[in-house]
């Protein structure tokens, strides 16, 4: 059994290394493994039964997530919190929605940037997105977790780099019929929805909509400064379909 698993892992590693966007796959795998091993998945008996699991989840999110009130009261201890929070998710829906968006938009963005720059861009923008939300809500005791801020930055960069790439979207007011639109239509529409929803985040773990907006702005601004108007890709293969907004 151990030999079988090690062989499968080695084959998977070789396949990832052979792709043009290995870090996108690595980030998806890392977030997925961390989630499955954590209390939010409900698959790890070590975190207790149904009665004790909610308390274990709250403690886990508070330890690895961003708590704005703690972040600014004890910066030396909490300085890494925005980085660790990027790899923690609050539910299956939270994880799957984020990973779907990372897969759809991350592959082409990483291919354009390169693996090292893309990784630094992803972590840096995600960190700053969470930090921006925490600064705007410095007294909040709510735990913030998730890769939404970083993925929103990927969306912003994608919009600048591939504005004409066609994206398949499911629109609820059109009975969820799949429709294909260019990125310059879909992504600003998504950003507008985040703006309307900003400040209305509910209780429980998750990344607030303001972090989405900060990440999106950082990603678009970085691509604009780094690559300039003359280096945008005017046409590109259409990315895979996506279902829902990252949350």
List keywords for this structure.
disordered N terminus, 247 residues, globular, disordered C terminus, mainly alpha, two-stranded antiparallel ribbon, single chain
Helix and strand layout, with pairings?
Elements: H1 2-17, H2 22-37, H3 53-64, H4 68-73, H5 75-78, H6 81-85, H7 92-113, H8 115-136, H9 148-161, E1 166-171, E2 177-182, H10 183-197, H11 209-227
Antiparallel strand pairs: 1-2
Question: Any overview of this molecule?
Answer:
α7 runs parallel beside α9 and α8 (115-136) crosses α9. This protein has helices at residues 2-17, 22-37, 53-64, 68-73, 75-78, 81-85, 92-113, 115-136, 148-161, 183-197, 209-227; strands at residues 166-171, 177-182. It has 11 helices and 2 strands. The protein has a two-stranded antiparallel ribbon with strand order 1-2. It has 247 residues and is mainly alpha-helical. The chain starts with a helix and ends in a 20-residue tail after the last helix. The relative contact order is 0.14.
Helix content: 55-70%
First-to-last CA distance: 37 Å
How is the main sheet built?
Answer: 2 strands, antiparallel
As a percent range, the share of strand residues is under 5%
Multimeric state:
single chain
Radius of gyration: 18 Å
């Amino acid at each position: 059994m151990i030999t079988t698993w090690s062989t499968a892992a080695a084959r998977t590693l070789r396949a990832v290394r052979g792709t043009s966007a290995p870090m996108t796959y690595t980030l998806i795998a890392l977030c997925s493994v961390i989630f499955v091993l954590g209390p939010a998945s409900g698959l790890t008996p070590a975190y207790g039964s149904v009665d004790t699991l909610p308390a274990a989840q709250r403690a886990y999110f508070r330890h690895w997530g961003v708590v704005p009130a703690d972040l600014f009261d004890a910066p030396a201890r909490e300085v890494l919190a925005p980085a660790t929070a990027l790899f923690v998710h609050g539910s299956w829906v939270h994880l799957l929605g984020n990973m779907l968006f990372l897969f759809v938009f991350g592959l082409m963005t990483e291919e354009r940037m390169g693996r090292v720059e893309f990784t630094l861009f992803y972590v840096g923008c995600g960190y700053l997105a969470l930090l921006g939300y925490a600064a705007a809500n410095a007294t909040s005791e709510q735990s913030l977790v998730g890769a939404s801020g970083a993925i929103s930055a990927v969306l912003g960069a994608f919009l600048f780099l591939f504005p004409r790439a066609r994206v398949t979207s499911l629109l609820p007011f059109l009975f969820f019929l799949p429709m294909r639109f260019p990125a310059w239509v879909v992504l600003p529409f998504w950003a507008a929805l985040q703006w309307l929803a900003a400040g209305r985040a509910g209780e429980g773990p998750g990344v607030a909509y303001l972090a989405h907006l900060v990440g999106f702005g950082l990603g678009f601004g970085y691509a604009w400064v780094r690559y300039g108007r003359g280096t945008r890709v005017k046409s590109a293969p259409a990315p895979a379909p996506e279902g829902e907004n990252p949350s």
